[in-house]
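Hello,

Our lab assistant flagged a job as stuck in the queue for most of the afternoon. It eventually completed. Since we weren't sure the result was trustworthy after the delay, we are filing this so someone can double-check. Below is the sequence as submitted and the structure that was eventually returned. Let us know if re-running is recommended.
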Amino acid sequence: MIDPRSLDDYRAHGGYKGLARALSLGSDAILTEVTASGLRGRGGAGFPTGIKWKTVAQAKADRKFIVCNADEGDSGTFADRMIMEGDPFLVIEGMTIAGLTVGATKGYIYIRSEYPHAVEAMNAAIAAARRGGYLGDKIGGSTTSFDLEVRVGAGAYVCGEETSLLESLEGRRGIVRAKPPLPAHHGLFGKPTVINNVLSFAAIPFILAEGAKAYADFGMGRSRGTMPIQLAGNIRYGGLFETAFGVTLGELVDDIGGGTFTGRPVRAVQVGGPLGAYFPRALFDTPFDYEAFAARDGLIGHGGIVVFDDSVDMRRQARFAMEFCAVESCGKCTPCRIGSTRGVETIEKIMRGERVNENIALVEDLCNTMKFGSLCALGGFTPYPVLSALKHFREDFASLATTLQAAE
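-- returned structure --
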């Protein structure tokens, strides 16, 4: 419908209405709107956006920053890329409103290096916004100043974690910081910082333009608004599907996705990226909702859904989760750095038929240590795919033990 790099096209389709209203409201009223909308972080944690912004707004500092986490590294996810390439001004407007709200004058968009077209599109849109008076000094004819800069990552998955991202932005290796202090108090260059995902900032212009209620009317429970859900893997109709929270996993996979591409039965669905839990068909009645997934030991994450048919080997999937963590770990904490490596070794022993039951118990104990002892979500969430594979697809592990016992 639009040329993504045309400011006139963006404005012709309602662009910058949200910023215009935000400029007339002021900080406190904007915070009220964002909080009332029920918007939660779309990067995976699901933390209420209004509370995060209020914390930064109330912090005392000579400078504050807005950071957009566009380091979209989860398997089967591409919503951030599509938005940045297809509607970049939406992200810019959302970040500008955030800067106006909390008193920040500078923002950074941290984009993964594997997204060169998104980097180009965002830089072009930022230049156009500056020419149009929507970035820089006196934005939108006001007395407020705010500017943006794109920074490109260096290929580290762990930089999707907010404190590791900040380290990278500051020019250092991406290593996770201990919390507290929280970035809202001590973030980029030691200053109060709002860090949100691309999808979070992209929701802000609508909320300000149409009002909090218009956004909150979508969804269920504490999960308000819409979520761009990415369908990938062994699926007939892959792609991006934006819908309100509350649609069931079965509707997403069977009705919208059309089942598997191979035509074989769906056996497992991983929701939430490589650290998400595997759900069997028995859990397809689960509503797409933060609390509903958490109640079943799963997580929504960034909204990625990867489908597997009945030919999948869940032992190999469990091993892959541990291997992924071992490769991508920043190495700062022992449970993640050592636990994932020992996890790969132990699952390989299971796959070779060595003391299967004892090693399964060892993997479960190891997952417990990683879940509660890791410094960040990389090590803390790796147990989700491993434990869900053991829980819901035990036959892939137990059948080997039974076969070996019968042979003996």
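-- support follow-up --
The delay was a queue issue, not a problem with the job. The result is valid. DSSP finds 18 helices and eleven strands in the chain. The chain has three domains: 7-217, 220-309, 314-407.
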